[in-house]
Amino acid sequence: MLILSCLAISFLQPSDITPEWSPDGTRLAFTRKLENRNDVWVLEIETKRLTQVTTDGYGMGPTWSSNGAKLAYGFLGHSKSEIRVMNSDGKGTSTKILELIALGETAWSPKADLIAYAGPNPPYEGIHILVFDVQTGGSKPLTTKGTYNDWPRWSPDGSKIAFSGGPNETQQIYVMRNDGSGDLPPKCVPCQSVMVAS
Predict the structure, then answer these.
(1) Which domain holds residue 57?
(2) Residues 136 and 169 grouped into a single domain
(3) Contact at 8 Å (CB) between 194 and 175?
(4) For the chain, what is the domain count?
(5) Mean pLDDT across the chain
(6) C-alpha distances out from residue 92 to 37, 66, 89, Å
(7) Distances (CA, A) of 79 to 96, 102, 151, 160, 193
(8) 20 to 30 A from 139, CA-CA: which of 17, 49, 111, 130?
(9) How far apart are alpha carbons 101 and 93 in whole angstroms?
């Protein structure tokens, strides 16, 4: 299986980043950077068939819905950032679900009801982890401590979120419950063991 994935990745062109496996393991979504444009593409592992999902030139960091039918991604424009949702086959048009002044990484929950993302959380400084409720359209902040929290990733059962936190130079991995409880303040100690909320 490792050989297959390496062969698939080597098939991609230079400046292909942020690979994300589909839930069934048959496809990879990724960001292609080309001539100052960023777009989301999907690679079918077995056939090596490539599909361009976005064409606006600002797509970044795709994350799959639990059934693999849709992709959420960051739209990083010149004056605004958005989270958008698009069909993973590239058909149709994207839907804006949230607009922000800044956006980090996104991650769709296993149950497809929440999208975790990194963004501003006023009045707290820096970038924090929040969750967007797909049904209600509301956002809830999960972290308030630290100066830069990013790369949220869900546990398989959706009960916890791992993320990197702290100053850029000394970030560590933290794990909190999906409601934000158990959030631990960064201690800025390099190479420290992963901190898990009890």
Answers:
(1) 1-100
(2) yes
(3) yes
(4) 2
(5) 83
(6) 20, 19, 9
(7) 15, 9, 22, 33, 38
(8) 17
(9) 23
